[in-house]
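> agent: user asked for a holo structure of the chain below bound to magnesium ion. Plan: (1) validate sequence alphabet, (2) canonicalize SMILES, (3) run complex prediction with ligand conditioning, (4) return tokens. Step 1... ok. Step 2... ok. Step 3 dispatched.
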Amino acid sequence: MVPQRDSPLPAAELFIAPGMCAGLEFAVNSKPTVCVLIRGPTNLHRGQLKRVIAIYPGTFDPPTNGHLDLIQRGSNIFDELVVAILRNPEKEPALFSLAERRAMLQSLTQPFDNVRVDTFGGLLVDYAMRVGARALLRGIRAISDYEYELQMALMNRKLDPQLETVFMMPAETYSYVSSRLVKEIVQLGGSVHGLIPDLVEKKLTEKVNGKISRQPPAVSRQEITSESRHRQPRGRRK
Ligand SMILES: Nc1ncnc2c1ncn2[C@@H]1O[C@H](COP(=O)(O)OP(=O)(O)O)[C@@H](O)[C@H]1O
Ligand SMILES: [Mg+2]
């Protein structure tokens, strides 16, 4: 059935047919359809017709505002973005469990309807193949990131030449933020307010305080006092 010309087209579908029927409106399976003329087959490769799924892989221990900045930028240019937490047995043990990181990221990415969270192990290129991703998103904060990221990108390209690595830069405000630094500062009692999402700040403080209070002190209070009696104050040592 051909929809009435003067009635608004309800959510018309785009029907692409090279060399055919430009501008015609008709129905496919009773859905109003707009037919667009594509001048040559090469136009089909320009990108606007393909859904691009990208993966944003990382450790996210914990997620920071730098990560979130990148997720927002990625969600603006890719059709679908999969935030993929690496199950990495080789890295130093994470502060947050995989389940905790997943829950935090899920809650933080709720506002983006084209972003989802997943976990993966093994080769990233194999995982990319499984989810049908054509791009990897990685962040470059400073030149110091570049060398490692370049090496990873080239190795991934060697393993799968079809998979493109896309680098993005966060806002300057987050260019010095890293998960490692954030953990260190909180563990030493400093404030990272504004550098990580409030939800993460709360969990991180709980985790660090919990860890400190659960661990038995290395030396007893008495030992500290008796030892310090024999020790010169720091600044005055010769
Ligand atoms: N503050 C930040 N701004 C932009 N990108 C960042 C920031 N922190 C981390 N990234 C990027 O996010 C990705 C994941 O980082 P991370 O969670 O540390 O995992 P990995 O173990 O892969 O380094 C990396 O590409 C990293 O460069
Ligand atoms: Mg890192």
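> agent: step 4 complete. Summary for user: The CA atoms of residues 86 and 120 lie 5 Å apart. The helical segments are 65-77, 98-108, 124-131, 143-159, 179-187, 198-214, 221-230.
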